[in-house]
Design a protein that fits this description.
This protein has 107 residues and is α+β, with helices and mostly antiparallel strands. Helix content is 29%, strand content 31%.
């Protein structure tokens, strides 16, 4: 789901105030036909609720799964998806391109 940056930040703030674990995923690099630009964000809570977009729906499910692990472990991750990646067909990047997404816990 595409959302404005201020809505994403508000959701993160509200979820933290409610005692939920929160992570933010940010597009840090793209190549080819990636549908979201560098700087696009996705905020995720520990229950898998999310707001924003890092790929227009191509990799959000995989990013949410990884973000929950980041929330639990507290260790950030750099994720990379692309047509050369064996998971590309599973997450929907069959159109081409590469996307790198940095996921970190919000403290």
């Amino acid at each position: 789901m595409y959302a404005r940056d201020e809505d994403i930040l508000k959701a993160a703030e509200d979820w933290r105030k409610a005692g939920r674990g929160v992570a933010v995923a940010t597009v840090v690099e793209t190549w080819g036909s990636a549908p979201r630009p560098v700087g696009s964000n996705l905020v995720i809570d520990n229950d898998g609720n999310f707001l924003g977009s890092v790929s227009g729906g191509c990799v959000e499910g995989a990013v949410v799964t990884e973000a929950i692990d980041v929330i639990d472990s507290g260790k950030p991750k750099m994720l990379e998806f692309g047509v050369a990646d064996e998971a590309a067909w599973q997450v929907g990047l069959s159109c081409g391109g590469t996307i790198r997404v940095y996921v970190e816990k919000v403290s």
